Amino acid sequence: MDVWARDPAGEYTEGEFHAWFPDLVVSRSETRKVIVWKVNARKIGVMIDGKNFFATSRGELLEGLATSNVKARSQGKREIVINGRAFRWNDTALLENELEASSAARSEARSEIPAGKKDFSSGEVFPSYDPTETEAWRSLKKIFRDVRKLHLRNIFSLDPRRAEKYTHEVVLGNGEEIIADLSKNRLTDNVVEEFLRLAEETEVPRAIRMMFEGARINGTEGRAVLHTALRNFSDRPVMLDGRDVMPEIRKVRRQMKDFSEKIISGRWKGYTGKPITDIVNIGIGGSDLGPMMAAEALKPYQARPDLRVHFVSNVDGTHIAETLEGLDPETTLFIIASKQFDTQETLTNAATAKEWFLEKAGDPSFVARHFVAVSTSEERVTGFGIDTRNMFRFWDYVGGRYSLWSAVGLSVACFIGYDNYEELLRGAYDMDEHFRKAPLKENLPVLLALFGIWYNNFFGAQTYAILPYSQSLRRLPAYLQQADMESNGKTVTRDGKRVRWQTGPVIWGEPGTNGQHAFFQLIHQGTKLIPADFLLAASSHYPLGDHQDKLIANAIAQTEALMSGQTREEAYQQLLRDGKTPEEAKKLAPHKVFEGNHPTNTFLFRKLTPSVLG
Length: 614
Known about the structure:
The protein has 614 residues and is of the alpha/beta class. Helix content is 43%, strand content 16%. It contains 25 helices and 22 strands. Strand 4 and strand 5 form a beta hairpin. Helix 11 (246-265) packs across helix 17, helix 12 (286-297) runs parallel beside helix 17 (410-416) and helix 17 (410-416) packs across helix 18. The chain is globular.
């Protein structure tokens, strides 16, 4: 019998499985593969056809096994074989007794797992789902045939309350608001209902809970995903392998606060006794894109007028050469951000910066006053010449694309002041709490993700545009590009099988109104469907004349034009009003047509503040 099993440690052949779990026998019924195990003292798991089902009690487990979604998988005999004995799903009493009798044997078997295999009793495993096999997906395919024919003009005319229904508001802890208008999406109420069912069928609520609780949902690396803990300001502990990670996170926050205050006040001196005037952050990927985006976005909050921040990432020598030009080694501080302190581009640039510094400073002991590190490797940091007292830690449960929220944000804290940096973290925490607690139908991150699946998988949209109508947010598209595309850049499922759906679009964008004079022509009149997000502040940090009014007017006009379009008749009449003859208008009208029906989301906020950015 060709049987395989999987757990967080990996996959098992039939021989391996029986050697390590001798008390469990797998029964195959038609195409069904069933495994039962005890995950921990309170949780029992069942794997059916490679998918995991969990329960916190035997009664809950047995109740779960009787549900229709399990039964629907096979019309034949359904049974579990434990210790050579077969039990039907409805033999609840016998099955419960057998589970209890064999639990000790299962626990003992796990203690004998060979070296290199992890004991998976410490946490649950999130199953691998194929969304295309769900009832919701099948229903969405049917609905799509009709919805694809609908124009947004008609959708709005049929539902006078649409704008109200599809507008969501998130209130941050400090009272600031972010309003999301999702009404201009090519979907109807029944589409939303089916997508919410898809989220339930694929256990999105459970996945959210597991992430916040420190489960090792990064299966390929066996790691938790806890960037949310970095911005946790509640009293709630965040447990990982039986320990609360919050004390070590708070310790690093205090270290960042102390250091940034010394830099801003001028108490931190260079080797000649002068205060620091320039900070150069050397990193790449998340160690560059995040802090650069935040520093540029929050420049109005600059803590000291003569304190500047620079970012170097590219191994092309032009980048660091142009950055160092005009800087003074006596007043320049370098922040080297590299988790293992072994990133090729970062260390190449760091070595060049050190050589540049020592050409004037001379004494290698002066490096300690001008170089600090954000890393996990004391040995490599010390080898570079950086005092470990000036090393700021972060952890392997923080993915690079999320490292802005860690000590990688040190350059931002020094630039805008720690209190403002903490407001950035608190804004992110407020959205985390919304994501963690809000029902799916009101959960903004969940809804945006589901709508993204709709366009990418059903409409065939291959790209997604981020269009901030804010010059301060000019680096936001690049930051989100990494966050989204590095996360979704996959061709296999969690259990290593080739995916049968689109995992994500190409993310790109530019600030408005620049984009209107570059690529909007193709969005409006081209043959591609390109969903887009518009971000817009009601007021500017720089209230010059009517600049902001014109910026707002452009953004609103673009979303309306993308939605409504312009018919040939409308174009013809407009040309006549512009003074064209009927013959000229008739000839030109086809070239003035744009179909509209292009989906957009609009995010509105009063002003771009640290908490709103977070």
